[in-house]
């Protein structure tokens, strides 16, 4: 143990067999850890990479005063769950431990506390970049604090305190940390969760406790290009398999594994003729498919942000408190022959229902001639505009599940336009239909548009509009 200007006295301690304390000298609170602190103590311990740990200390504030109850804690190679460096020795960042659980909660004698703030609130878990020996450094944040036990737990105390927050008498046996037992992996999700029977889909698998060298299987078929990005993320390429749902299995090199039942669904190749398709997964607008800042159905306000992010199309944040038309989004870069075809899109997020902001999907020719599905003020609406005259064809209370998928379709056998919705891009429900006006909206030259925006001042923030998985095709 290394001590710099802290004092020690004999005491029973799980940390070092003594009590470490710094008397109250009236020093102001240290708001940021020092790179080279004049006063600190440090200890070494062993821990495993990729394993979450919980930090606890048993401490006492001099005179049970709230101004004598906090420290800064840093580590030699600590990271967060994504692998980014945090709370590092030699930096001005650290994780803070306040013995008092909340402002006014009070203090009484010895107590166990982690690096969270608030009654019942646990702080961030600690991860380490490598397996082996690590250093913990503790700097005073407020003088007048004593510490006699430190616990860095991967399991027993990961979600449970070793002892009481006040008047504690718990004394844990001393330990140098040892080599923690590896925890089995868990699986949370696979994204995307469906793909072609021919394989080749790139997926991201999320969970916990993934280790370098882990393997991935889809049922019994082995995935390729497996990359363990971190303890919580794996990327891989899906192998070929017959159509239908399959289990996804991740196995660490020590044989411990986890299964996500029906975690991926194989879909037989489409026999359709695709007109325009974009899953927005590359987080970059494809200007060979789309024209940006150039809406066809109305005025474009380029100040309304339109971008691909998180593998989706996001429009906004939409404006509040501004009068006039403020819409933006994407329109297809080309016009298409829509005879006997359909176009569909997933609305992931609508504007706030307390506003009249819009999320709109339009198929048409020009500002005066189109067919449209949109959501406004918590209402789902099917609309036409022919010769400049708008008509509401169907309305219903917006249901984010029942109305998640939108489709506008031309039925070649009947010559009608159909407005449809689905929960899953499969079980479509016809909401309205009427003869397609080929004079106003020629089927030989149709444009697609996704947009969001406002047309009046909104007193509350309308939020963002998020679309995903656009597809226009002819069966």
Blueprint of the fold:
Blueprint: E1 2-4, E2 7-10, E3 18-22, E4 40-47, E5 54-61, E6 70-75, E7 78-79, E8 95-98, E9 111-113, E10 127-128, E11 132-140, E12 145-153, E13 186-191, E14 194-196, E15 202-208, E16 215-218, E17 221-222, E18 224-230, E19 233-237, E20 244-251, E21 257-267, E22 273-278, E23 290-292, E24 306-309, E25 312-315, E26 326-332, E27 342-349, E28 358-366, E29 369-376, E30 379-386, E31 389-397, E32 405-411, E33 416-422, E34 429-435, E35 447-454, E36 465-474
Parallel strand pairs: 14-21
Antiparallel strand pairs: 1-4, 2-3, 3-12, 4-11, 5-9, 5-12, 6-8, 6-11, 7-10, 13-15, 15-19, 16-17, 16-20, 18-19, 20-21, 22-36, 23-26, 24-25, 25-36, 26-35, 27-32, 27-36, 28-29, 28-35, 29-30, 30-31, 32-33, 33-34
If you had to describe this structure to a student in words, what would you say it looks like?
- The structure is a single chain.
- With 475 residues, the protein is mainly β.
- The protein has 3 domains: 2-153, Galactose-binding domain-like (Jelly Rolls, Sandwich), CATH 2.60.120.260; 186-267, Sandwich (Immunoglobulin-like), CATH 2.60.40; 273-474, Jelly Rolls (Sandwich), CATH 2.60.120.
- The chain is 0% helix and 47% strand.
- It has no helices and 36 strands.
- The chain has strands at 2-4, 7-10, 18-22, 40-47, 54-61, 70-75, 78-79, 95-98, 111-113, 127-128, 132-140, 145-153, 186-191, 194-196, 202-208, 215-218, 221-222, 224-230, 233-237, 244-251, 257-267, 273-278, 290-292, 306-309, 312-315, 326-332, 342-349, 358-366, 369-376, 379-386, 389-397, 405-411, 416-422, 429-435, 447-454, 465-474.
- Strands 22, 24, 25, 27, 32, 33, 34 and 36 form an 8-stranded antiparallel beta sheet that branches. Strands 23-26-35-28-29-30-31 form a 7-stranded antiparallel beta sheet, with no helix packed on it. The chain has a 5-stranded antiparallel beta sheet with strand order 1-4-11-6-8, with no helix packed on it.
